[in-house]
Amino acid sequence: MTVRTRFAPSPTGPLHIGSARTALFNYLFSRHHGGTFLLRIEDTDRARSTNEYTRLILDSLAWLDLSPDEPPLFQSARAARHAEVARQMLEAGHAYRCYCTPEELARMREEALAEKRPARFDVWRDRDPAEAPPGVAPAIRLKAPREGETVVDDLVQGPVRVANAELDDMIILRSDGSPTYLHAVVVDDHDMGITHVIRGTDHLTNTFRQVQIYHAMGWALPRFAHVPLIHGADGAKLSKRHGAQSVTEFREQGYLPEALCNYLLRLGWGHGDVEVVDRAEAIRLFDIDGVGRAPARMDYAKLTHLNGIYLRQADDGRLTEEVLARLAGRSDLVLDEAAMRRIRALMPGLKERAKTLVDLADSAAFLARRPPLPLDAKAAAQLTENARAMLRQLAPALAATDFSAPALDAALRRFAEATGRKLGQIAQPLRAALTGSTVSPGIDATLAALGREESLARLRAVTG
RNA sequence: GUCCCGUUCGUCUAGAGGCCUAGGACACCAGCCUUUCACGUUGGUAACACGGGUUCGAAUCCCGUACGGGACGCCA
Question: What is the pTM of this model?
Answer without folding.
Answer: 0.94
